[in-house]
Specification:
Blueprint (H helix, E strand, L loop, with lengths): L4 H15 L8 H14 L5 H8 L5 H11 L11 H24 L9 E3 L6 H16 L12 E5 L2 H9 L1 E3 H7 L2 H7 E4 L2 E4 L1 H5 L1 E5 L12 E6 L8 H14 E9 L12 E6 L2 E6 L1
Parallel strand pairs: 1-2, 1-7, 2-6, 7-8
Antiparallel strand pairs: 3-5, 4-5, 8-10, 9-10
Helix pairs in contact: 1-3, 2-4, 5-6
Length: 285
């Protein structure tokens, strides 16, 4: 089906308004490859008709489906390797130390070292974080801490992706792509031709829908936020607003982890980049 120049521009604008995603002039194929099934399902005769329908008064289900179809779901367990190695080696130990200090200095209830995975797709990142925490705790049984002391909030704009994440069931290829055999045997159980996440890890994570293109709701404060491979899809204005929200969401001295190809330079000066092993972590001022 032909995508006219007018429809391409209208759909680029609509997608940007819906989820903040910037579709480049050279990315016409993203529109045609991902939205043509939406046209067929809604019996729309053209991309121009889709653009017009998105502006209708009763278009919310259609808008949601366009967002579901267009947003990137590329993810894997322990993606890029070194960030999760650093979680186990230094970041989670630092969170544990801070948590114990807080609890020793006050009688008030402490919610734990809260972690937010802000664009979790089908859940692999959140489960990778939970495995890193569990690995550390297994190596330090005398700390008196459990997974419950590291509650994880995992959010994404896609309801379909979140449904997969909540189920916690992945193909053998998904698991082999990023999970070492030792972690697989410890945190997964075979289920037919797939692998299911251990219930201990599933209980440690709350999955919730959240559109990072919208003003962030009150989520409380966090000790660690992962916002990896998100900023590269937003324009500069959206990046600035999102970084402001992430700054508010972190406690002073909290850790922010972004993608390896991303930078906060020229976007915000409210974080201090620090090299930890093979990764850069941004410390909230």
């Amino acid at each position: 089906m032909r995508l006219s120049g007018e429809a391409f521009q209208a759909l680029r604008k609509a997608i940007h308004e819906l989820c903040g995603l910037v579709i480049g002039e050279d990315k016409r194929y993203l529109i045609t490859s991902r939205l043509e099934p939406v046209l067929r399902q809604h019996a729309l005769p053209s991309y121009d008709a889709l653009a017009a329908a998105l502006g209708g008064a009763n278009s919310m289900p259609l808008r949601d489906q366009v967002v579901e179809s267009i947003t990137t779901k590329e993810t894997s367990f322990n993606r890029d390797g070194h960030p999760f190695e650093e979680l186990r080696r230094s970041i989670v130990p630092a969170l544990a130390g801070r948590l114990r200090e807080r609890r020793a200095s006050t009688r008030l209830a402490d919610p734990g070292a809260r972690i937010w995975c802000s664009a979790v797709a089908t859940g692999q990142e959140a489960y990778s974080v939970a495995m890193a925490v569990a690995d550390f705790l297994a190596s330090r049984p005398g700390l008196g801490l459990t997974l419950d002391d590291f509650p994880i909030l995992a959010t994404d704009v896609s309801q379909a992706s979140l449904a997969i994440a909540r189920e916690g069931r992945y193909t053998a290829a998904d698991v082999a792509r990023g999970v070492p055999p030792a972690q697989r045997d410890r945190y997964f159980r075979p289920m037919g031709d797939a692998w299911a996440i251990d219930d201990r890890l599933r209980r440690a994570i709350e999955f919730r829908r959240l559109n990072l293109n919208h003003p962030l709701p009150s989520l409380g404060t966090f000790d660690l936020v992962l916002c990896r491979n998100v900023l590269i899809y937003f324009d500069e204005g959206h990046r600035r607003r999102l970084c402001q929200g992430l700054h508010r969401a972190l406690i002073p001295g909290g850790f922010l982890m972004i993608g390896a190809a991303e930078s906060l330079f020229g976007i915000t000066d409210t974080f201090t980049p620090v090299r930890m092993g093979g990764t850069i972590v941004h410390i909230r001022s």
